[in-house]
Amino acid sequence: MVEQCNPSLWNDTTEKLLLHIFKVVDSGKPQKCKWKTVALKVNEYGYNFNAEQCRLKVKSLKQKYDRNKKKMKKFGESPPSEDDLSEVESVFDSLPDMRPTFTIDSGDTSTKKKKNQKRSIDHMLDYLEVNFEKREAEAKKRHSEKMELFGWCIEGRSQKIKIQ
To answer: In the chain, where are the structural domains located?
Structure first.
């Protein structure tokens, strides 16, 4: 039996035990009651965790492992400690969601680059100038139509006044 302070809190010892049991239970094939089995085996050592707590802890350890792997690829980042990676790596590296057997590319990425190319300043200025000229021409046309309509209204009003 393993000694611990609180049988329902996670610490390094319980995490290592959980990872070891998870590795043994998780054969890569889906199992209906995998987390119940993991929780029962962890609780055999005197701990008090349920299936959901075990599932969430493995999920958080997986995310931490993934962050540490990405951190190692960046320049200027201090590498994570060896303890963080060595034990977790042996468990998660074989999982298909952490290291897929193969990946499929969805298509040619060169077309995406063509769509997102920045336009030159000259091209933008030409575009703005053409649009400005169109707007000005449309504004003049609307103005002349309004003036013509206004002229007809005044003409009709003045004829009505003469008739009376």
So the answer is: 12-101, 119-163
